[in-house]
Amino acid sequence: MTAADPAAPPVAVVTGASSGIGAATARQLAAAGHHVVLTARRKDRIEALAAELNAAGRQATAYALDVTDRAAVDAFARTLDRFPSVNVLVNNAGGALGADPVATGDPADWREMYEVNVIGTLNMTQALLPALTASGAGTVVVVTSTAGHATYEGGAGYVAAKNGARVLTETLRLEIVGTPVRVIEVAPGMVKTDEFATTRFRGDTEKAAKVYAGVPDPLSADDVADTITWAVTRPAHVNIDLLVVRPRAQASNTKVHRES
Questions:
Q1: What is the DSSP string of 151-171?
Q2: 17-34 burial, b if ≥16 CB within 10 A, otherwise e?
Q3: Is the overall model pTM greater than 0.90, yes or no?
Q4: Which contacts of 16-20 are long-range, i.e. CB under 8 A and separated by 24 or more positions?
Q5: Sheet holding 138-143, edge to edge
Q6: Tell me: the pLDDT tens digits for 220-245?
Q7: Cα(94)–Cα(160) distance, rounded to whole angstroms?
Q8: CA-CA distance, 73 to 65, in Å (whole number)?
Q9: What is the rounded CA–CA span in Å between residue 181 and residue 88?
Q10: What digits encode the pLDDT tens for the residues 158-183?
Q11: CA nearest 29: which of 181, 230, 193, 183?
């Protein structure tokens, strides 16, 4: 890291920032005064978002990155030395593939979900934890899901991956207690974004639409980003261990009010 500059804005790294919750979180953290470092595989998307934020007088940098590639993650971490400190890591990159039962689920889908949701979070957290600790007031956020807290039929692969991310988060908090780093889990329920369900069903927009059919006011990406930003911007001694956020219409993963 370069010499500390008390006037420099806090730096927040956001993974999966090319769309959905990640992009919304980057916008809100930038508005809250952070220099946001946007990472995702889709370079064009994060470069466009960085340009949008910078044009609005915010501070943003884009860096194309696959969080499952450990060598690439380590190389990215070294580029952060140009900042006086790194203060926040939002582990948002993730996603679901398929909705098959255990009996017929594709092991390749399970493996891919585990790689991005768990190993990707592990890679980024390990690579950035020294800098977050050195900042004197670091924050690790892991965006899990209510799937990580209760199972449902057709969701075992995703549930298993998000359970892995949840347990990683809880264990990290135990292991680094006493250091100047907070560990926050945000577990969203039903969030309607442009891509999540469509990606899960491999581009089948009809199946994706059925997920939200009749549900009045599912969460938006901005709702979750607002929750993340609120937790991050609490005083440094305040750790929001876990925030489960659902739309009012969703009582649980399997109990959802739908209007005809």
A1: --TT-HHHHHHHHHHHHHHHH
A2: bbbbbbbbbbbbbbebeb
A3: yes
A4: 16/40, 16/67, 16/92, 16/93, 16/94, 17/46, 17/49, 17/92, 18/42, 18/45, 18/46, 18/49, 19/45, 19/193, 19/194, 19/195, 20/191, 20/193, 20/194, 20/195, 20/196, 20/221
A5: 59-64, 35-40, 11-14, 88-91, 138-143, 181-188, 242-245
A6: 999 999 999 999 999 999 999 999 99
A7: 13
A8: 7
A9: 9
A10: 999 999 999 999 999 999 999 999 99
A11: 230
For 56, the token pair is 């609005």
- 93 is written with which tokens? 């990159």
Q: What is the DSSP string of 70-126?
A: HHHHHHHHHHGGGSS---EEEE----------TTT--HHHHHHHHIIIIIHHHHHHH
Catalytic residues: 158
Q: Which two tokens stand for residue 182?
A: 């907070």
